[in-house]
Specification:
- This protein is mainly α.
- 76% of the residues lie in helices and 0% in strands.
- The two termini are 35 Å apart.
- About 9% of the residues have low confidence.
Length: 521
Amino acid sequence: MNETESDDSCRESFNFKKSLGIKKQKFEQDGLMLKNEGKLSIFQKICFAVGGLPYQMCGNALGLFISPFLLEVSQIRPKQVSVILFSGRGWDAVTDPLIGFFVNRTNTRFGKLRPWILFPVPFAIFCYIMIWYVPDISRSSKTIWYLVFYCFFQTFLSCLHVPYTSLTMYLTPDQAERDSATGYRMVFEVLGVLLAAVIQGIMISIYGSTVNCDVTTLNLKSTTPFPYNDSSLISNNLNDDSDTNKLSEGYLISASIMSLIYLICCLTTFFGTKEMKDVITDHNKEFFKSFKSVFSHKSYITLLLAFLFNSLAVQLVQSNLALFCKYTVDAGDQYQYLIIVLLVSSILSLPLWQYLMIKLGKKTTYAVGLILLIPNLFVLLYIENTIWLLYIVCVISGMGIAVNFLLPWSMLPDVIDEFMIKSGERKESIFYSFYVFFTKLASGVAVAASALVLEFSGYIDCPDGCCKQPITISLALRMLIVPGPIILLLLSLIFIWKHPIDENRRRDLKERLYEIRHNQF
């Protein structure tokens, strides 16, 4: 009798394991489970990471160079530059959430997200090249030209970046693997910023002209602003229209090179990644209810605000660094090298921050990185012509900026995990759409606000090659890159402190998600 019961028990166990194996195989084929418990190969991580390069490359080329380009090459007044950029951010406020909503509703045989990465590429490339073209029209018409192409480019860029960043949640359910993939992605994103600085910088150095400034005509220590329209005091032997046209050609060539890189990266990510399906799906597809549920989630709000203020601080420094080097510390010829040092420092420090993230936790590491930036910015308030000190500041700033690349994007998937557990739904495209919008909002507001400050400080129009600006411009630039960013970083630290997801909470979320998925399985 006992032998019979034992045989029956063995048979039931064997049949159960066989049935379990068949189900597991079917789940893997359907994409509901990943082989090797969600482990990603290095090749998969690289193919995913490459997709982050276009956004940072083009976005930072605009952040670093759009202000000097519009002011000194296209000859647009600062207040018109601010109109272009502020209007662009208003446009993004409408389009980015809509893109997130439509991405969330997409379902094709190529996946939910991957088609969005590919289809807007030709439109984005065309608009990006047009941003760096100088049309032979009036100044007011130029303002409309740049506004239209800037807005459309930002829309097509969101069509790429919202689904691309959301793809993080569809690569694997494993937290550690997602963090690792995000780390790979951050390396390529910093590389994108580096490419923007190097490519644009090389073209400017090749096609730009050298201006011979008669320093005896300028009193650097004068406290009296230059007359608003007397540009003869500002520059000497200014370039003619042909020189400005040459520099415009350099900007166009760099835009074309970056557009080719943009295309290659999008193709690599589209064909090199695969979306995981999940047992947790989105049932509520109503527009306003979806956004209400997302913005009712406390941990998302605290992280979003910390990210916003942090990004504003970084973008405020970035958008004014070129003019600061040129007109405040007389180091315009060192600008390209300073940017390269800053970005190489960011890339080299990413493994350190990844290690600290594991040892100290994400929340603590994020705070440490921001605190590192604050005393470093104070140095810029007093630095004059000490070039070697400027390089040290860039090395330390690069380490702090690496935190801005890595930590906010590593913390967001944990917030989405918490939301999925509480609501039983997936809305990662909406979560990521506002993250992307706030990134662009920070960039646009920083450049636009800076342009307004320069306008009221007496910025003087001149062709490319201006030697000096009024002393008020030098002071305004110093104020823009020190007190403002420090206040914004302090606000960011407050919201990081209030963020409720720490390492204990992360472990709890991981266990609960594991239970949900395996109970369904």
